[in-house]
């Protein structure tokens, strides 16, 4: 039915069905391959865009200054994009970003966040991200083997080998009731895979036990999503027992988080838009 409706000669919509299941991230790569434009927005089943999304983002990509970016995200409606470790660090990061804008010599407010205060792992608001087709393909695209962290891994890779940015306007939101990322199965994947990924990105941090603290905090955050599934919740509780030292020294992690945040803040920044 969809193929018949959308494959008409006058239609601007192309319907395409993969011959086999490529997985979530494999499907995103296929979208990049099939897209005909320079900039590609991949919308998922739980993504919603605001009425002015196309108008706003069309202005963004029409600006010569954004040609250095491989990914451009935008803020989520009623959400704060500067979630790093949560709590004190999150608030302080937001304060530093505002401070940087105030002391800037530019007359107009900053309209992009280039994610320089997020630490070694980069996380763009996951919905309605614009992809520069050629740059993303050159970076190798998403990796299905990294499920369910393929998006975070690719955003991080794009940050270090290209440039990424968050357009500071709320133009999208998620319908969490149908989100694949919030299902118990996916959350369990996160509990085992996510901490390992974050640990590998944080292992250069000093002292070494700080990286283990971050791993513990990541698992605790994920565990809260399983509160309605007692068996799974208790299973993760047993996993957390491996981090007894991290639990006792959790308060120290706030000090190191602020230290590295300030270190990132005061290191030389690229010219911002």
Q: What does it look like?
A:
The structure is a single chain. α7 (184-202) runs antiparallel to α8 and α8 (208-223) runs antiparallel to α9 (230-240). With 273 residues, the protein is of the alpha+beta class. Strands 1, 2, 3, 4, 5 and 6 form a six-stranded mixed β-sheet that branches. It is globular and about 65 Å long. The longest helix has 19 residues, at 184-202. It contains eleven helices and six strands.
Briefly say what this structure is.
It contains eleven helices and six strands. The protein is α+β, with helices and mostly antiparallel strands. It has two domains: 179 residues, Spore Coat Polysaccharide Biosynthesis Protein SpsA, Chain A; 82 residues.
Secondary structure elements and pairings:
Elements: H1 2-6, H2 23-34, E1 39-41, E2 47-49, H3 53-61, E3 71-76, H4 87-103, E4 112-113, E5 130-132, H5 133-138, H6 150-161, E6 164-174, H7 184-202, H8 208-223, H9 230-240, H10 244-248, H11 250-266
Parallel strand pairs: 3-6
Antiparallel strand pairs: 1-5, 2-6, 3-5, 4-6
Helix pairs in contact: 4-11, 7-8, 8-9, 8-11
């Amino acid at each position: 039915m969809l193929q018949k409706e959308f494959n008409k000669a006058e239609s601007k919509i192309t319907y395409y069905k993969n011959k086999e299941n490529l997985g979530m991230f494999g499907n995103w790569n296929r979208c990049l391959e099939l897209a005909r434009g320079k900039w590609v927005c991949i919308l998922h089943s739980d993504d919603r865009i605001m009425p002015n999304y196309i108008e706003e983002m069309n202005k963004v990509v029409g600006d010569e200054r954004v040609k250095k970016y491989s990914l451009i995200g935008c803020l989520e409606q009623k959400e704060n994009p500067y979630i790093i470790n949560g709590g004190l660090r999150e608030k302080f990061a937001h304060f530093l970003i505002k401070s940087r804008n105030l002391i800037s010599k530019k007359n107009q407010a900053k309209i992009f966040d280039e994610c320089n205060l997020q630490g070694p792992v980069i996380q763009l608001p996951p919905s309605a991200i614009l992809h520069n087709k050629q740059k993303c393909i050159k970076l190798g695209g998403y990796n299905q083997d990294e499920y369910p962290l393929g998006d975070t891994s690719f955003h991080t890779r794009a940050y270090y080998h290209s440039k990424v940015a968050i357009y500071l306007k709320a133009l999208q939101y998620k319908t969490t009731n149908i989100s694949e990322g919030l299902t118990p199965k996916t959350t369990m994947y996160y509990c085992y895979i996510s901490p390992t990924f974050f640990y590998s990105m944080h292992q250069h941090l000093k002292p070494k036990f700080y990286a283990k603290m971050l791993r513990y905090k990541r698992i605790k955050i994920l565990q809260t999503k399983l509160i309605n599934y007692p068996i799974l919740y208790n299973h993760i509780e047993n996993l957390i027992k491996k981090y007894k030292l991290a639990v006792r020294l959790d308060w120290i992690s706030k000090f190191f988080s602020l230290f590295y945040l300030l270190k990132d803040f005061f290191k030389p920044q690229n010219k911002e838009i």
